[in-house]
Amino acid sequence: LCRYQHIWNIDLRFRPAYLGGIMQATGNKPPGMLPKRAEYMLKDLKRLGKYYQVPVQLSADDFQRILNTSSLGAMRFITAIDMTQPQFLEPISREFWIRFWSQHEDISQPASILAVARQAGLSSEQAQKLLEMISSPAVKDRLKETTEDAIKYGAFGMPAVVAHFNGEQHLFFGSDRLELLGSVIGEKWLGPVPS
Asked: Partners of 173 in the beta sheet?
C-alpha cells in the first residue's frame, strides 16, 4: 500500500493498534495454532514474499517465536511516534517489520526498540525520550483507543485497512486485498511493484 500512496488518489494514514487486544476482543485465534493452516501459511507467506518482493523469512520454528513475542512495547513505541513525530511512523513501522519478519530479531526489549529507532533515522536522544513515553498513561490510552477504533471498523486481525470512500467505510483484511481496494476506490491495480 505504501507503494501506491503516490500513484492512487489516497491519503495513507498509519494507525497503530495492538493485535493482541484485537484478537482477544474478537475471539480470534492465530492461524498458526491450526496445524494444517500453519503448514499452508508457511508456503503462502513464501509465495507472498516473492510476489510482493518483501523479505519475509519464515520457518515452522517461527510460529513459537511469533506466539511467544509480545509486540505491546513496540506498538506503544510506534504510538509515541504517532503522537509526537508522525513523519517517522512509516519508517519505524517498516523497521520493526524487517527486524521481526526478515531478521528474526527481538522487538520486545528496550535495547531492540532503540536499535529499530536508530535504523529508522531517529537520534539516540529522540529514541530514548520516546522509549520513556511508552509507560505513560497518554500513550497507553492512545493505543487502547486506536485498537478499539480498529475493532469498531470490524478488524479481527492485522493487517486491516479501512478505506473511507464516498462517505462509506470499507474494511479490507490482509495484505493480499489491495486489488480489491483499488476496485472499490476506482483506482487501477498495477501489480505488486508498480513502476
From this structure: 160
Strands (E), the chain: 160-165, 168-173
DSSP helix, strand, coil percent of the chain (3-state; round to 5): 60, 5, 35
Which residues, listed in sequence order, are joined to residue 88 by a DSSP beta bridge? none
Q: Where do the domains of the chain lie?
A: 19-185
CA distances from 112 to 96, 108, 121, 125 (A): 9, 7, 14, 15
The three cell numbers of residue 1 are 500500500
The pTM of this model reads 0.91
Q: In this prediction, what percent of the chain has a pLDDT beyond 70?
A: 99
b vs e for 141-167, b when ≥16 Cβ sit within 10 Å of the residue's Cβ? ebbeebbeebbeeebebbebbbbeeee
Judge contact between 75 and 143, C-beta under 8 A. Answer: yes
Low pLDDT (below 70) residues in the chain = 60
Task: Cis check for the bond before 30: say yes or no (omega within 30 of 0).
Answer: no
Positive or negative, the CA dihedral 8, 13, 15, 16 is positive
CATH 3.40.30.10 fits 19-185, yes or no: yes
